[in-house]
Design a protein that fits this description.
The complex is a heterodimer of chains A (about 140) and B (about 160). Helices cover about 40% and strands about 20% of the residues of chain A. In chain B, strands 1, 2, 3, 4, 5 and 6 form a 6-stranded antiparallel β-sheet that branches. In chain B, helix 1 packs across helix 3 and helix 2 crosses helix 3. Chain B has a single domain, classed as CheC-like (Chemotaxis protein chec). Chain B contains 4 helices and 6 strands, in the order H-E-E-H-H-E-E-E-E-H. Classes of the chains: A alpha/beta (about 140), B alpha+beta (about 160). At the A-B interface, helix 1 of A face helix 1, helix 2 and helix 3 of B.
Amino acid sequence: MTRALVVDDSRAMRSILTRILSSLGMEVVEAEDGQSALAKLQQFPPFDVALVDWHMPGMTGLELISDMHRQPKWRSMAIMMVTTESDQSQIVRALNAGAHEYLVKPFTADAVAEKLLLLGVKFSKGNGSESTMGGNN
Amino acid sequence: MATLLTADMISEITLETWEAILAEAGSRLSPKASRPGEEITGYVDIAGAWRGNIGLTCSLAAAKHAASIMFDMDESELGQSEINDAIGELVNIVGGNIKALLPAPAEMSIPHVIEGSPVDDPDRPPPLREVRFEWLDELVIVRVWMMPTDEESSDEDA
């Protein structure tokens, strides 16, 4: 089963993303901030994908993905920034920091699935069949 | 520069946010409302090349309904923290997309939520923009306040 880490300081947003990812047959672990995400990354078996908010108290999402990218053991994990920041310059900053994909809030469940496809993350569609396409490198 | 931010732009962003996040309610946000009910407000602050606040005010009933959809919980199970979190995330999304239309670079704060309406605050100036909506027979208002940037303030002082 594909494993996802959802990092967002908003419980409401974590709840929405968890429902979408669970409906795609994924196992989801939530973290409320950057420090908690790093702890979950150490504590749990490797995740296939991390969905990371930008604006969080303490460690920002940008700082978190920079940290994650520096660790060789987490380099195979796909990283998607999920944020309201839509300026081109901010997208470039996130990609330079280590994000592989970028999803602007508000989003639909279809948009999440589309981005997962672009990342090559496996998930099951409604009919139980698996989807995957391309890679994230 | 900030006058380029029109009420139509704010309306479009808010409608898109409601459609994406709260579509399950089966009722669209409609751009009209004169009913009372300014009971809870979420704010984000923007600082940088543009400085100001964005506020989302609604009735407690609307806030509870939004939280119920976002948390997938019955309204009777919701506490104040869930309601505040939901309004905070909605203003975060609406505010972030409005910020994208304003002069850059600028940083947006983490959302904060208070009881009541900005109009209850006598020190708060009138908003630059105010857009009213109705959602499930309840009031939703998005307001944008502009404040002088540090540079503009120092020009005035000189």
